[in-house]
């Protein structure tokens, strides 16, 4: 299959609160913020300079019956962490911590690099990953 992953859905309890967290505390940029017919709001954020977007999907916002059915078990904070590759994990940890971002796991050395994990206000996890400099970055 050829293609490009462009978006990952992140389940949140409040889109406005999540948007403020990701843009103000984490430093992501707002990519999309529109109100669709029927009143649903479509909000995406992502790292600056990247095409990847996180769709901030608010629990209970589905209006289509099929979407309501397949999303009924979605809940904030129930997915494995989304991994963000960084050049200096400790530096990013300090920067985000100074903005009030909560880290249940501060930077830790592993055989595969340095990692730290933070959570958003809904408990969704993100892992900052700094691979060893000897690893290829393709």
Q: What name goes with the CATH superfamily of the largest domain?
A: 2,3-Dihydroxybiphenyl 1,2-Dioxygenase, domain 1
CATH topology of the largest domain: 2,3-Dihydroxybiphenyl 1,2-Dioxygenase, domain 1
**Hey, roughly how much beta strand do the residues contain?**
35-45%
Gross CATH architecture of the largest domain: Roll
Count of discrete domains: 2
Elements, N to C (H/E): EHEEEHEHEEE
Euclidean distance between termini CA atoms:
19 Å
The number of helices is: 3
Helix residue percentage: 10-25%
Radius of gyration using CA atoms only:
16 Å
How does the major sheet shape up?
A: 4 strands, mixed
**Which structural class should the secondary elements be placed in?**
alpha/beta
Uncertain runs: none
Number of strands: 8
Rounded average pLDDT? 90
Global outline:
globular
Q: Could you name the CATH class of the largest domain?
A: Alpha Beta
Q: For the largest beta sheet, what order do the strands appear in spatially?
A: 1-4-3-2
């Amino acid at each position: 299959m050829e293609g490009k992953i462009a978006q990952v859905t992140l389940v949140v309890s409040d889109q406005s609160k999540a948007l403020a967290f990701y843009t103000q505390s984490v430093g992501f940029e707002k990519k999309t913020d529109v109100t669709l017919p029927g009143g649903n709001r479509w909000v995406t954020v992502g790292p600056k300079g990247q095409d990847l977007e996180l769709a901030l999907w608010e629990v209970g916002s589905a209006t289509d019956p099929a979407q309501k059915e397949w999303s009924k078990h979605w809940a904030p904070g129930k997915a494995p962490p989304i991994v963000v590759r960084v050049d200096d994990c400790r530096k990013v940890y300090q920067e985000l911590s100074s903005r009030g971002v909560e880290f249940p796991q501060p930077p830790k050395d592993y055989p595969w690099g340095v990692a730290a994990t933070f959570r958003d206000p809904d408990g969704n996890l993100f892992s900052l990953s700094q691979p060893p400099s000897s690893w290829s970055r393709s």
